[in-house]
Amino acid sequence: MKKQKTKHSKKKGLTKEQENQSEKISELVTQIGIITVQVQELNLANKKLKEDVAFCKGHIREKETKINMIKSIVGANK
């Protein structure tokens, strides 16, 4: 039994099944490209968040230092 070929696939010499598989592969390649871009965006966002956390930790350390200085001054004046 010979596989049917569509008019379009006759030009390529592909069967309908091969044409469907080719379309599925193209869709998967497109999805992989989209996912790759999303991963890159998430990596950038993660990097920014890490920088923000580091900044906040430094800011907290500064505040803690000032609080400790004030505590030591108040404690010395008792």
Describe this structure as you would to a colleague.
There is one protein chain. The protein has one domain. Helices cover 86% and strands 0% of the residues. It contains 2 helices and no strands. The protein is rod-shaped. The relative contact order is 0.05. The model has no long low-confidence stretch (mean pLDDT 88).
List its traits.
rod-shaped
Mean pLDDT: 88
Query: Would you report the number of β strands?
Result: 0
Q: How would you classify the helix and strand content by structural class?
A: mainly alpha
Taken together, the total number of domains comes to 1
Name the beta content range.
under 5%
What distance lies between the first and last C-alpha atoms, to the nearest angstrom? 103 Å
Order of helices and strands: HH
Q: Sum up the overall morphology in one term.
A: rod-shaped
State the share of residues found in helices, binned by percent.
Answer: over 70%
Count of DSSP helices? 2
Largest sheet: none
- Radius of gyration from the CA trace? 32 Å
Low-confidence stretches are: none
Topology readout:
Elements: H1 7-12, H2 16-76
Give a short synopsis of this structure.
It contains two helices and no strands.
